[in-house]
UniProtKB/TrEMBL annotation:
Single GO MF annotation: endopeptidase activity
Protein name stated in the entry: S41 family peptidase
A GO-annotated cellular component: outer membrane-bounded periplasmic space
Coiled-coil regions, chain positions: none
């Protein structure tokens, strides 16, 4: 950094002041309160002080880094969900929440110093141009994409580009050799609906992984198809869905609630209340609704679950949700960065806030998640701590509680063996995927590429040797996992990731959900009612 540690407190103090100054530069042009951020003498003083440090201080100081530290420190002292987004992260976050990006539409990873196509996005540019799973992309225009110097982080930028721009790829395919293909870049969807299919003749299932700009459209298409397939009741799976935009959650809830029913309301620092009501657009206002949640379901997921629960519209199944009831707005800081600032709280229709306490700081706030493991809450509903002062009643007289998450109507305990957690970790890390690709699919590409979904489900089985081979594969790469006594679960995950690479997330979820505890509970409930 170029300065003595003894000056750090001074710089942090100055940085706090600089953060106040930066606050005056926030873009509130669309807000009538913008006049509050006009220039004044105090802000000019802080601005001048930063200039003195920049131009006159004896040591070289990166004032940009001071400002970044300042913004983070200020936000940390507000609440756990007001955050600073640096320029280098903002584009990726924006793409994720928009629900699409401009690219060629392939899933890939570097394998033996080449770009190996795992699968192509259905209907995307690469599929239309004839790219297939198992192909190796060797070059993109004049950029070489193979060799020992292959750097994964830069690959996406070489394949992305302007909408409708063309990229010439040099591709290797086993049995065909090297050939050229031109791909016109297009919008590539980032799916937020992982799966939608019928659990039985009357029960439809939809899994939503986040709430992005495209989520409602995806969701609407999914339930419309399920209704056409005969769905009279619905399961909405929001497990591990950390939230996102509120608007899609409101529109989703609207599909199930009657006209003018309150979905939720927000309240800002001045006490101004904004109500959100259902409209006449609902397409599924009569059938039974089951909502699956767990300890990782947060924010917009909790808005949806709370609206269904508080209006006595359906049954919430699972474990207590995360407990995030704060609403953020993203505001540009003028240099490519942004701040996501909490501007209000949201409340469920009965008036309860499900935001868990954060007065004791961020560390304790995030550690509360781990406390649920320790106090037994994830194994027993009786261990969930509730306060009578936060008791509310639904229109039908059901008792619900505020103060930290949505408490389910039907509790389903977490797997105490933690095998599922281990397997999910291996999935997220890509470890299982690499094994399946390298040791099976890539070696028998012609066979697997010619299988239909039904043929795959009916004819492909995971052998003991293939499951044992994964454990050896892991040990060879110094990954120690204890799954020898859980071979059936391991086989299920191996087949599921194989299905995902061949056919997409829908087939993956079908296999993973087989014998799933929460879905089994819902199937049982649906028979009883």
């Amino acid at each position: 950094m170029g300065y003595s540690k003894k000056y750090l407190p001074l710089f942090l103090g100055l940085a706090v002041g600089a953060g106040v100054f930066l606050g005056s530069k926030l873009d509130f042009s669309s807000n009538p309160s913008a006049k509050l951020f006009s220039s004044n003498a105090k802000k000019e003083k802080l601005n001048r002080l930063i200039d003195y440090i920049d131009y006159e201080y004896v040591d070289e100081i990166n004032t940009d880094s001071i400002v970044d530290v300042t913004v983070n420190r200020i936000l940390e002292n507000l609440d756990p969900h007001s955050v600073y987004i640096p320029p280098e992260e903002l584009e990726g976050i924006t793409e994720s929440m928009q629900g699409d990006f401009i690219g060629i539409g392939v899933s890939y990873y570097p394998y033996k110093d080449t770009i190996s196509v795992i699968n192509t996005i259905r209907g995307g540019p690469s599929e239309k141009s004839g790219i297939k799973a198992g192909d190796r992309i060797l070059m993109a225009d004049n950029d070489t994409l193979y060799g020992e110097g292959l750097v994964r982080d830069g690959l996406a930028n070489k394949l992305k580009g302007e909408l409708n721009s063309q990229v010439q790829l040099k591709v290797y395919r086993r049995g065909t050799g090297i050939f050229d293909v031109v791909v016109k870049r297009g919008k590539v969807p980032l799916q937020s609906v992982d799966a939608s299919y019928m659990l039985n003749d009357e029960l439809g299932y939809v899994k939503v992984n986040r709430f992005a700009e495209t989520t409602y459209k995806e969701f609407k298409n999914a339930i419309t198809t399920l209704i056409d397939d005969g769905a009279k009741n619905m399961v909405i799976d929001l497990r591990d869905n950390g939230g996102g935009f509120i608007a899609p959650a409101l529109k989703m809830a609207d599909e199930f609630l009657g006209d003018d029913v309150l979905i939720m309301f927000t309240k800002n620092k001045k006490g101004a209340i904004e109500n959100n009501f259902a409209t006449s657009k609902g397409s599924f206002e009569q059938g039974k609704i089951y909502v699956l949640i767990n300890e990782n379901s947060a924010s917009a997921s909790e808005i949806f679950a709370g609206a269904i629960q508080d209006n006595d519209r359906g049954i919430i199944v699972g474990r207590r949700s995360y407990g995030k009831g704060l609403v953020q707005r993203e505001m540009a800081l003028g240099d490519g960065s942004a701040v996501r600032l909490t501007i209000s709280r949201y409340y469920t229709p009965t008036g309860r806030s499900i935001q868990k306490p954060y007065a004791n700081g961020n560390k304790e706030y995030f550690n509360e998640y781990l406390e649920r493991y320790k106090n037994g809450e994830l194994q027993s509903a009786d261990s969930i701590q509730v306060a009578d002062s936060l008791k509310f009643k639904t229109p039908a007289g059901k008792t619900v509680y505020g103060g930290g998450g949505i408490i389910p109507d039907i509790f389903v305990s977490k797997d105490t063996t933690r095998v599922g957690e281990t397997l999910n970790y291996l999935l997220r890390s890509g470890f299982i995927g690499r094994y399946v690709f390298e040791e099976e699919l890539d070696k028998k590409r012609d066979f697997y590429n010619n299988l239909s979904k039904q043929e795959f489900q009916e004819t492909v089985t995971i052998s003991d040797d293939f499951a044992e081979g994964f454990l050896k594969y892991a040990r060879k790469r110094r990954v120690e996992i204890q799954l020898k006594n859980y071979q059936s679960q391991l086989k299920k995950y191996l087949k599921a990731i194989m299905a995902q690479q061949l056919f997409g997330t829908n087939e993956f979820e079908k296999i993973i959900n087989n014998d799933d505890a929460m879905i089994t509970k819902v199937l049982s409930l649906s028979k009883e009612e």
